[in-house]
Structures are given as structure tokens and as C-alpha cells.
Specification:
73 residues; 37% helix; flat
Length: 73
């Protein structure tokens, strides 16, 4: 398990909330970030000094929809 920080950003790119979590890998940290996102927000996933990635509420919704579609087949 690694330490991750998820920064929720508003439309101006300002951090509006930070959450710390222990996750098995980047994929698990992204899943947590998706659950924390609100409409129009973005999230950055950090592992120490490394930015593991950025996700937007729009892409999170698209990923969720695709995941459900794939699971149904």
C-alpha cells in the first residue's frame, strides 16, 4: 500500500479539497478520485512528489458509463 493524495480542483485550477488515502496502486487511487469528483471539478492524484494523473468529472462519468457497458457484455 502506498500513500496517495487526491486534490480536488475547481474550474480555476485552485485546490478546494485534499484527501489522503492508502491505495494498492494508481488504478485504485484513480477509482477513489472518480468517486470524490463533483460536476465541473478536476482531480489530481499524487503519490509523493509524483503526479500520477489528472481526471475530470466528465471523463470520470464517461469511464463509469463505459465500465457498466463492458460489464454488461
Amino acid at each position: 500500500m502506498a500513500d496517495y493524495r487526491i486534490d480536488l480542483l475547481n474550474g480555476s485550477g485552485q485546490v478546494v479539497q485534499q484527501s489522503n488515502a492508502k491505495c494498492a496502486d494508481d488504478r485504485q487511487a484513480y477509482a477513489l478520485a472518480r468517486r470524490l469528483l463533483g460536476f465541473g471539478e478536476h482531480a489530481e492524484v499524487w503519490s509523493g512528489d509524483r503526479c500520477a494523473g489528472r481526471i475530470s468529472a466528465t471523463s470520470a462519468a464517461e469511464i463509469e458509463m463505459l465500465s457498466r457497458t463492458w460489464a454488461a457484455h
